[in-house]
Amino acid sequence: MTGTAPAARPLLEVRGLRVVFDGFTAVDGLDLTVAEGELRFLIGPNGAGKTTLIDVVTGLTRPAAGQVLFDGTELVGRREHRIVRLGVGRTFQTSVVFERLSVVENVDLAAAFRLGLPRLLRVRRGVSGTVAEALERTGLTALADRPAGELSHGQRQWLEIAMLLAQRPRLLLLDEPVAGMSRDERERTGELLLEIARDHTVVVVEHDMAFLRSYARTVTVLHEGRVLTEGDVAQVQADPRVREVYLGRRGAGDEPAVPAGGEVG
Ligand SMILES: Nc1ncnc2c1ncn2[C@@H]1O[C@H](COP(=O)(O)OP(=O)(O)OP(=O)(O)O)[C@@H](O)[C@H]1O
C-alpha cells in the first residue's frame, strides 16, 4: 500500500457500547474502530473494561446497548460459535488447552470447531494443511506429538495462538499474551504477533510497557469503560490524562505501566 492510498476499511466497529453487570456499568459508551490489517494494542488500568470489550465482541457477554460490527455484520445477539465461524477468534487470560491431548490434536480440534459438525463428519482424518501451517507459524511443529500438559508456559500460549490460527480468523483478539512469560518468550511472542499481523487484524490487550514499546503500533487507552485516548506509544505515554489514570499503578510487567520519564522517542 502506498502513502497516498485511502485508509483501510474498518473491520471492527464498536459504537456506543454499554455493558451493565447487576447495576454496575462496566462499559459506558465505548466507541472503537479497528481497520483491516491493524495491529492494535489496548491498555488501561485494572477494571477499565478491556476484557469485557473482548467478551462482547466474541458473544460471551451481551451489552445493554450499542453495536459491534464485524466487516459490517452485527455481532450483538449472535452466539459464540457463530462469531468464531464469521472469522473472529480470541484467547483467554486462562488457558483452554486439553492437557492430555497432544499439541497437534489440540490444534486439530480447534480447526474442527470452526468447520462445524456436518462438514467435520465429511473431513477425512489426518493433519490438514491449515493445522500444519498453524503449528509451523507458531514454531510448534517439533512438539506436535507432545501432550499439551508437558509444554512450558510460553509454549502453551503459542499453542493457544496456533489453535486460533487453525480457525482461520480474520480478527484475532489476544488477552495478555505475554503475561508470566520470560524475556525470551516475550520476544518470540512479539515477533510472532508481527508475523501474524502481516495477514490478520490483531487486537492485543497488554499491560507490559516494555513489550508495547517494542511491538505496538497504535495504542488505545481505556478508562472506566470508555476510550480515553488513542495514538502511537509515544503519544499515549506523553498524554497527561493517561499518566493521571495510571498514577501510582503498576502494570503486569516489572515497571510502571506508564513510566514518568518520556523515554519513548
Ligand atoms: N461478570 C461480571 N460481573 C460483575 N462485574 C464484572 C463482571 N465482569 C467484569 N466486571 C467488572 O467490570 C469492570 C471491567 O472489568 P474488565 O475485566 O473488563 O476490566 P479489564 O480492563 O479487563 O481489567 P484487568 O486489567 O484487571 O483484566 C470491572 O470493574 C469488573 O469488576
TrEMBL record:
CDD domains reported for this sequence: ABC_Mj1267_LivG_branched (cd03219)
SMART domains membership: AAA
Listed GO CC annotations: plasma membrane
Keyword Cytoplasm included in the entry's annotation: no
UniProt superkingdom: Bacteria
GO molecular function: ATP binding; ATP hydrolysis activity
Stored Pfam families: ABC_tran, BCA_ABC_TP_C
Keywords: ATP-binding, Nucleotide-binding, Transport
Stretches assigned to the ABC transporter domain: 12-249
Keyword ATP-binding: yes
Residues annotated as transmembrane: none
Signal peptide range in chain numbering: none
PROSITE patterns: ABC_TRANSPORTER_2 (PS50893)
InterPro entries in the record: AAA+_ATPase, ABC_AA/LPS_Transport, ABC_transporter-like_ATP-bd, ABC_transptr_urea_ATP-bd_UrtD, BCA_ABC_TP_C, P-loop_NTPase
Protein name: Urea ABC transporter ATP-binding protein
